[in-house]
Amino acid sequence: MKLPVFDAAGAQLREIDVADEVFGIEPNRSVLHQAYVTQMANRRAGGASTKRRGEVEGSTKKTRKQKGLGASRQGSIRASHHVGGGVAMGPRPHSFAKDLPRQMRRLALRSALSSHAEDRSIIVIGGLPADGKTKSMQTVLAANGIARTALLVSGEHDATVTQAARNIENVKALPAQYLNVVDLVNAHHVVMTEDAVRKVESLWGGENLKPHRGRKEVASA
Protein backbone atom coordinates (compact mmCIF):
# COMPACT_ATOMS: atom_id res chain seq x y z
CA MET A 1 0.00 0.00 0.00
CA LYS A 2 1.19 3.53 -0.75
CA LEU A 3 0.54 6.80 1.07
CA PRO A 4 1.34 10.24 -0.36
CA VAL A 5 3.79 12.51 1.47
CA PHE A 6 3.06 16.24 1.59
CA ASP A 7 5.20 19.21 2.52
CA ALA A 8 4.32 22.10 4.82
CA ALA A 9 2.66 23.95 1.94
CA GLY A 10 0.34 21.06 1.08
CA ALA A 11 2.16 20.00 -2.12
CA GLN A 12 2.68 16.29 -2.72
CA LEU A 13 6.32 15.32 -2.66
CA ARG A 14 6.26 11.57 -3.29
CA GLU A 15 4.63 8.32 -2.23
CA ILE A 16 5.92 5.86 0.34
CA ASP A 17 5.21 2.16 0.77
CA VAL A 18 3.52 1.26 4.05
CA ALA A 19 2.78 -2.13 5.59
CA ASP A 20 -0.52 -3.60 4.44
CA GLU A 21 -0.91 -5.50 7.70
CA VAL A 22 -1.05 -2.18 9.58
CA PHE A 23 -2.65 0.29 7.17
CA GLY A 24 -4.45 -1.96 4.71
CA ILE A 25 -6.47 -4.55 6.62
CA GLU A 26 -10.24 -4.90 6.65
CA PRO A 27 -11.23 -2.94 9.83
CA ASN A 28 -12.78 -5.13 12.50
CA ARG A 29 -15.58 -2.86 13.74
CA SER A 30 -16.58 -5.21 16.56
CA VAL A 31 -13.10 -5.33 18.10
CA LEU A 32 -12.69 -1.59 17.52
CA HIS A 33 -15.89 -0.94 19.49
CA GLN A 34 -14.78 -3.23 22.32
CA ALA A 35 -11.42 -1.46 22.57
CA TYR A 36 -13.09 1.96 22.59
CA VAL A 37 -15.54 0.97 25.34
CA THR A 38 -12.72 -0.64 27.36
CA GLN A 39 -10.50 2.43 27.20
CA MET A 40 -13.34 4.78 28.15
CA ALA A 41 -14.33 2.51 31.05
CA ASN A 42 -10.75 2.43 32.31
CA ARG A 43 -10.77 6.22 32.49
CA ARG A 44 -13.64 6.27 34.97
CA ALA A 45 -12.66 6.98 38.57
CA GLY A 46 -15.61 5.11 40.09
CA GLY A 47 -15.51 7.29 43.21
CA ALA A 48 -19.22 8.15 43.46
CA SER A 49 -20.51 7.31 46.94
CA THR A 50 -23.77 7.66 48.86
CA LYS A 51 -24.69 6.85 52.46
CA ARG A 52 -27.07 4.03 53.17
CA ARG A 53 -29.53 3.94 56.04
CA GLY A 54 -26.96 2.40 58.34
CA GLU A 55 -24.52 5.26 57.75
CA VAL A 56 -26.69 8.39 58.18
CA GLU A 57 -27.33 10.07 61.49
CA GLY A 58 -30.66 9.60 63.22
CA SER A 59 -32.54 7.46 65.66
CA THR A 60 -33.33 3.85 64.89
CA LYS A 61 -36.45 3.96 67.03
CA LYS A 62 -39.78 3.30 65.38
CA THR A 63 -41.42 6.69 64.77
CA ARG A 64 -44.93 5.58 65.80
CA LYS A 65 -46.71 2.43 66.78
CA GLN A 66 -47.63 -0.06 64.11
CA LYS A 67 -51.42 -0.17 64.55
CA GLY A 68 -54.32 1.87 65.87
CA LEU A 69 -53.55 5.28 64.38
CA GLY A 70 -55.03 4.82 60.92
CA ALA A 71 -51.74 5.97 59.45
CA SER A 72 -49.10 4.27 57.37
CA ARG A 73 -46.60 1.90 58.89
CA GLN A 74 -43.28 3.62 59.52
CA GLY A 75 -39.98 2.47 60.91
CA SER A 76 -36.75 4.42 61.45
CA ILE A 77 -36.30 7.98 60.19
CA ARG A 78 -33.15 6.68 58.52
CA ALA A 79 -35.27 4.97 55.84
CA SER A 80 -34.70 6.19 52.31
CA HIS A 81 -38.15 7.76 51.88
CA HIS A 82 -37.56 10.16 54.78
CA VAL A 83 -35.82 13.50 54.34
CA GLY A 84 -32.25 13.02 55.54
CA GLY A 85 -32.53 9.27 55.30
CA GLY A 86 -30.15 6.94 53.56
CA VAL A 87 -30.06 6.40 49.79
CA ALA A 88 -31.56 3.16 48.53
CA MET A 89 -29.33 1.29 46.08
CA GLY A 90 -27.13 4.36 45.51
CA PRO A 91 -23.67 4.27 43.91
CA ARG A 92 -20.70 2.95 45.86
CA PRO A 93 -17.00 3.30 45.01
CA HIS A 94 -15.93 0.53 42.65
CA SER A 95 -13.73 -0.05 39.64
CA PHE A 96 -15.10 0.11 36.10
CA ALA A 97 -11.89 -1.36 34.68
CA LYS A 98 -12.14 -3.82 31.81
CA ASP A 99 -9.49 -6.03 30.32
CA LEU A 100 -8.86 -6.73 26.66
CA PRO A 101 -6.39 -9.29 25.27
CA ARG A 102 -3.22 -7.87 23.77
CA GLN A 103 -3.93 -9.23 20.30
CA MET A 104 -7.37 -7.59 20.30
CA ARG A 105 -5.86 -4.25 21.37
CA ARG A 106 -3.35 -4.44 18.52
CA LEU A 107 -6.05 -5.45 16.04
CA ALA A 108 -8.16 -2.49 17.15
CA LEU A 109 -5.27 -0.09 16.55
CA ARG A 110 -4.57 -1.55 13.12
CA SER A 111 -8.29 -1.38 12.32
CA ALA A 112 -8.45 2.29 13.28
CA LEU A 113 -5.35 3.13 11.21
CA SER A 114 -6.63 1.14 8.23
CA SER A 115 -10.01 2.87 8.45
CA HIS A 116 -8.30 6.27 8.30
CA ALA A 117 -6.13 5.11 5.41
CA GLU A 118 -9.19 3.85 3.55
CA ASP A 119 -10.94 7.21 4.06
CA ARG A 120 -7.78 9.07 2.97
CA SER A 121 -7.75 10.92 6.28
CA ILE A 122 -4.14 9.95 7.10
CA ILE A 123 -1.83 12.74 6.00
CA VAL A 124 1.89 12.02 5.98
CA ILE A 125 3.95 15.18 6.42
CA GLY A 126 7.59 15.43 5.46
CA GLY A 127 8.23 17.38 8.67
CA LEU A 128 6.32 19.31 11.32
CA PRO A 129 7.35 22.84 12.39
CA ALA A 130 10.31 22.76 14.75
CA ASP A 131 10.03 26.31 16.12
CA GLY A 132 7.32 25.45 18.67
CA LYS A 133 5.06 28.27 17.47
CA THR A 134 1.31 27.83 17.31
CA LYS A 135 1.01 30.06 14.25
CA SER A 136 3.45 27.88 12.29
CA MET A 137 1.48 24.75 13.14
CA GLN A 138 -1.81 26.40 12.18
CA THR A 139 -0.31 27.39 8.81
CA VAL A 140 0.78 23.81 8.09
CA LEU A 141 -2.61 22.38 9.06
CA ALA A 142 -4.51 24.94 6.99
CA ALA A 143 -2.27 24.34 3.95
CA ASN A 144 -3.10 20.62 4.10
CA GLY A 145 -6.85 21.22 4.39
CA ILE A 146 -7.21 20.24 8.04
CA ALA A 147 -10.00 22.22 9.66
CA ARG A 148 -11.53 19.64 12.01
CA THR A 149 -10.29 17.45 14.87
CA ALA A 150 -6.72 16.39 14.17
CA LEU A 151 -4.23 14.04 15.81
CA LEU A 152 -0.55 14.86 15.27
CA VAL A 153 1.72 11.82 15.55
CA SER A 154 5.50 12.06 15.76
CA GLY A 155 8.02 9.23 15.82
CA GLU A 156 9.29 10.12 19.29
CA HIS A 157 8.19 12.63 21.89
CA ASP A 158 8.77 16.10 20.43
CA ALA A 159 8.34 18.94 22.91
CA THR A 160 8.22 21.57 20.16
CA VAL A 161 5.32 19.83 18.39
CA THR A 162 3.43 19.49 21.66
CA GLN A 163 4.05 23.14 22.48
CA ALA A 164 2.91 24.31 19.05
CA ALA A 165 -0.27 22.21 19.09
CA ARG A 166 -1.50 22.53 22.66
CA ASN A 167 -3.24 25.89 22.14
CA ILE A 168 -5.03 24.87 18.93
CA GLU A 169 -8.60 23.79 19.51
CA ASN A 170 -9.37 20.14 18.65
CA VAL A 171 -5.72 19.33 17.91
CA LYS A 172 -3.73 16.83 19.98
CA ALA A 173 -0.10 15.77 19.64
CA LEU A 174 1.18 12.30 20.58
CA PRO A 175 4.29 10.21 19.98
CA ALA A 176 3.65 7.01 18.02
CA GLN A 177 4.02 4.70 21.01
CA TYR A 178 1.12 6.47 22.78
CA LEU A 179 -1.36 6.00 19.95
CA ASN A 180 -4.68 4.74 21.25
CA VAL A 181 -8.07 3.77 19.90
CA VAL A 182 -10.06 6.62 21.46
CA ASP A 183 -7.87 9.38 20.01
CA LEU A 184 -7.77 7.68 16.61
CA VAL A 185 -11.54 7.21 16.45
CA ASN A 186 -12.29 10.74 17.66
CA ALA A 187 -9.92 12.36 15.14
CA HIS A 188 -11.14 13.37 11.69
CA HIS A 189 -7.56 13.57 10.41
CA VAL A 190 -4.37 11.80 11.50
CA VAL A 191 -1.24 13.76 10.62
CA MET A 192 1.89 11.60 10.80
CA THR A 193 5.53 12.16 10.11
CA GLU A 194 7.43 9.52 8.13
CA ASP A 195 9.24 8.53 11.33
CA ALA A 196 5.86 7.99 13.00
CA VAL A 197 4.72 5.73 10.15
CA ARG A 198 7.82 3.55 10.50
CA LYS A 199 7.49 3.50 14.29
CA VAL A 200 3.87 2.37 14.02
CA GLU A 201 4.86 -0.40 11.61
CA SER A 202 7.54 -1.65 14.00
CA LEU A 203 5.18 -1.54 16.99
CA TRP A 204 2.09 -3.22 15.53
CA GLY A 205 3.30 -4.92 12.37
CA GLY A 206 5.98 -7.39 11.38
CA GLU A 207 7.00 -9.68 14.24
CA ASN A 208 4.30 -8.26 16.53
CA LEU A 209 1.54 -9.77 14.41
CA LYS A 210 0.00 -12.93 15.79
CA PRO A 211 1.28 -15.81 13.61
CA HIS A 212 -1.33 -17.88 11.85
CA ARG A 213 -1.60 -21.51 12.82
CA GLY A 214 0.44 -23.70 10.54
CA ARG A 215 2.39 -20.81 9.01
CA LYS A 216 5.73 -22.38 9.85
CA GLU A 217 4.66 -25.77 8.55
CA VAL A 218 3.43 -24.25 5.27
CA ALA A 219 6.61 -22.22 4.88
CA SER A 220 8.81 -25.23 5.48
CA ALA A 221 6.82 -27.33 3.06
CATH topology of the largest domain: Ribosomal Protein L4, Chain: A
Q: Any idea what the CATH architecture of the largest domain is?
A: 3-Layer(aba) Sandwich
Query: Distance between the terminal alpha carbons, to the nearest Å?
Result: 28 Å
Find the structural class using helix and strand composition: alpha/beta
Report mean pLDDT, rounded to a whole number: 91
Helical proportion? Answer: 25-40%
Largest sheet: 6 strands, mixed
Shape: elongated
Annotated CATH homologous superfamily of the largest domain: Ribosomal protein L4/L1
Give the CATH level 1 class of the largest domain.
Alpha Beta
What share of residues are in beta strands?
Answer: 5-15%
Number of strands: 6
Which series of helices and strands comes N to C?
A: EEHHHEHEHEHEHH
Oligomerization category of the chains in this entry: single chain
Given the structure, what is the number of helices?
8
Low-confidence stretches: 215-221
Total domain units: 2
Strand order of the largest sheet: 2-1-3-6-4-5
What Rg do the Cα atoms give?
27 Å
Question: Can you offer a commentary on this structure?
Answer:
With 221 residues, the protein is α/β, with parallel strands linked by helices. The protein folds into two domains: 2-40 and 100-220, Ribosomal protein L4/L1 (Ribosomal Protein L4, Chain: A); 45-95, no CATH class. Helix content is 34%, strand content 14%. It has eight helices and six strands. It has helices at residues 20-23, 29-43, 102-118, 134-143, 159-165, 181-186, 194-204, 215-220; strands at 2-6, 12-17, 122-125, 150-154, 171-175, 189-193. It has a six-stranded mixed beta sheet with strand order 2-1-3-6-4-5. A hairpin with a 5-residue loop joins strand 1 and strand 2. Helix 2 (29-43) packs across helix 3 (102-118) and helix 4 (134-143) packs across helix 5. The chain is elongated and about 90 Å long. The two termini are 28 Å apart. The relative contact order is 0.17.
